## 1
Amino acid sequence: MKVRAFTVVYILIILASGVSADDQWKKHVLQEGKRSLTAVAGDFSGDGLPDVIAEVGNSTILFVAPDWQQIVLDSHSEDRGYIHSECFDIDGDGDLDYVGARYNPGLITWLEQPEKGASQRWKKRLIADTVHGIHGLMQGDIDSDGKPDLLATSAQAIDPHPESLVWFSVPSKPKTATKWHPNVFAQQDAPGLTHYIGVGDINNDGRLDAATGAKGGPTATSAGEWFAWWEAPAQPQQAWKKHLISDQEPGATNIHPADVNGDGKLDFIASRGHGKGIIWFEAPEWNCHEIDSNLQEAHCLAAVDMDSDGDIDAATCAYGDKIVIWYENDGKGHFTPHLIGENQEAYDIRTIDIDLDGDLDLLLAGRASNNVAWYENPRK
């Protein structure tokens, strides 16, 4: 296994400080032996405990807390399953529903949580099948109606929405809707194999904007290696204005808006998940600052307050270096790495208080580690 120099140094610091194993992040494995590309957590059984839904092999599986009983919600006939997921209350009945997306040919479906999520059948309905190259899903209230909408990448150069970005408003009657209408806000304006989406009010005009990155490389049919954000207009069904952040980002995958340095402006925390490095871009000129210039293939990224000190930190699992790590922000944009675990890789990471002890834990979809696992935050 490849271990970078700073990781070795960090481990030695931990040992020298006398920190016991009980003070370290504890790994909990929900399933082992099958590939997983995405996992989300929430109360999917109605008992008040956070459960997990993950794409495992060619199946969508519900892991019911606290014993993590496995329930197959859906099976896919394709050779590969869904690549990304989201969860929010789609039908307005007060519980979380599940959204899953296949990369190519594109497919987005949602599963309705029944009254008893652990014992009753979840019904699957179609959202879209004309958006191809879906790598990232994200929710956000785009049309300011107080309800979540769904954003998706359309990364493949395939009609009817080649190399574009779209958002969907939940239909007024989602249970009977044949499909959801795609609002294309970046029509053929997102080339180079876009990945994940971040949302936030970047220009402080009261509307949610969106950002993404495109990895580029030999499999891309057009230029990538960029991060950019799109400014939402007053009528979000119209085209959005593109703002380039950087076009020197080989392997660009993840980007999240966050006030990194505490100056009241939204910056961006980003990763080159098909390349090297975790970085942040400082508003308003988008000057690039390295958080970790050497981390290999940090394909997943969370930008949250991991230590509850009021500023935004970063967490990832690098599938190249096979380490789980978080970066502590001092509130001014200077980051300190903290090793969480080794010999683990992931395609997707989520933060949620799984054990309900008041701090954020990390949920990982373990891709080539062939597992679904969560790491217990020891801070509380």
## 2
Amino acid sequence: MANVVFERVWKIYPGEVVAVRDADFAVEDGEFMVIVGPSGCGKSTLLRMVAGLEEVTRGTISIDGRVVNDVAPKDRDVAMVFQNYALYPHMSVFDNMAFGLRMRKYPRPKIQKRVSEAAEVLGLTEFLDRKPKALSGGQRQRVAVGRAIVRKPKVFLFDEPLSNLDAKLRVQMRTEIARLHRQLGATMLYVTHDQVEAMTMGTRITLMRDGVIQQIDDPLALYREPANRFVAGFIGSPAMNMFPGKLERRHGDVVFDEGSFTVSLGGREDLAGFPDRVLLGIRPEDLVLAAGGGPPQPGELTVEVEVVEPLGSEMYVHGRAGNRSLIARVEPDRRVDVGASLRLRLDPKRVHFFDSDTGVALRPSAAGVS
């Protein structure tokens, strides 16, 4: 296997359309790197430049220490799995998986051995004689993955391979691909727009927006310490609640004043260096039902319930605090009625702050943390 290094990589299309801007990072040997972001952010373009399907405008891409900018796709020793299975309908599963090896003039015994090994890993042994039309969507995608495995490339490239599958098959296949990575110890780059896939599969995640890398980190760090407002809103489902407002010191406590509601954050000395105007972020799971009655306590706010979504293991409550909409994830065994007034409590240590102008995350000072 091998590492993949991007050094100041740009992709600019005619008309000065910038698809990738100054990508500079490394994918380590044996790592499962997920590249995630909304449609049109440049993630697939980045992957296609590694494969050699797109030319690099500026910068260099190296695979296993070798700059591949001018190397033909067939000589890069990479294998790509596309969103479309791209199987030959007239060929059996065996022949589809063996096709690339035959084109490279591998001897028949070696082809037989590699296809058999890949089929066993992917649970396809009993389907080797079938044509693609006799397979389910998940089985066809496994054949496409198997066709890549038999080549034993230095790098595997996945371009939204699960997008055409239904929800149940997506869960099954992402588990199988993650298990495959552990078995092979291979270097994998995996592109998706689905943040759940990114969080559950990746060793690390590269999050992109408008051709620019926003943050590269492991999944939990990306979730707990987002670099900016965009990352905070993209990672996590439902998305983080965001409220613009100002911080004020009242009677020894820090109070966040949105304009239509206020919430006390306690004695937060660690926020002393923050600007007055900020964006406050709080994840739905960090809002819990509080006991009603009496004036609001520190960390509490009153919410008017508009929609209730019971999901069995959890329940989402959509409501309004003052003039702002929010979502809270609460215990499923609590009765919550539309139109009711709820008291929700947030943990002041679990809120996030962002610069109201740039969206960059503001970090509390370590000196002020108790």
